């Protein structure tokens, strides 16, 4: 049906001999989905679909999540389709056509600052710099499993607040306090349960997790920093070196991703669709959790 090769980490695999631009039978899609549940990072090589083919494949996974920025805003594509997003440093008429234009990116799980984040990201490589700009992936189920029993007990009943601080140039009239207060935010369990396979997943990330609820910011920073350092270890990541025509599909519940730096004078253009989760992330330790708390004032 298609060929599968494990990449240098067991959670990542490469799929060849499939054209995602052609209609896929239910049987083929079910085989892709089952493979994805075993390897939450799937790299499909040599894809040539246009934006419609890309969108049609993304829609097989569920309802598409619109991009954050509106057409005409800095960092939004000019495309009328509200679901397509570019990750790019390219400017047209002096305006960035995509988000996350330059530099390294901290590990994160897309839209974890929304009550209903995305379950899948589908990123397609169009223009690739010659060195750097790798997308880095970590399996947060593995990270959870590597924790001591004492740490697992400590985090079992915790909620965290995630916030969205945009990667684009800051509004110079806002103070940092105002940015945090007015940012898009959501409260989620620190350990979530994978909705399809029930596995425990550590759900905090350096880019978006602002605070553990019920702790002071200082206490929380100290605790979170240890988890962020665990995620940052190079030996546990799969570094995706892009080739033009790659489509990378990630399970956004189970994995986090970041990016290595690259030469800002080289063009980088990737096109992305994201798919909504079916419901807010659920706690792994339901019996230990009080009901979802209100947002704490920042
Ligand atoms: O630029 C990249 O490699 C990753 C960008 C990213 O975080 C995303 O598309 O969600
Ligand atoms: Fe992302």
Written overview of the protein:
With 298 residues, this protein is an alpha+beta fold. The chain has one domain: Double-stranded beta-helix (4-Layer Sandwich), CATH 3.60.130.10. It is built from 6 helices and 19 strands. The strands form 5 sheets. It has a 7-stranded mixed β-sheet, with helices on one face. A 4-stranded antiparallel β-sheet has the order 7-17-9-15. The protein has a 3-stranded antiparallel β-sheet with strand order 11-10-14. The longest helix has 15 residues. The protein is globular. 2-oxoglutaric acid binds next to strand 8 and strand 17.
Q: What Rg is obtained from the alpha carbons, in whole angstroms?
A: 19 Å
CATH superfamily: Clavaminate synthase-like
Average pLDDT, rounded to a whole number, is 93
CATH topology: Double-stranded beta-helix
Query: Architecture, CATH level 2?
Result: 4-Layer Sandwich
The rough form would be described as globular
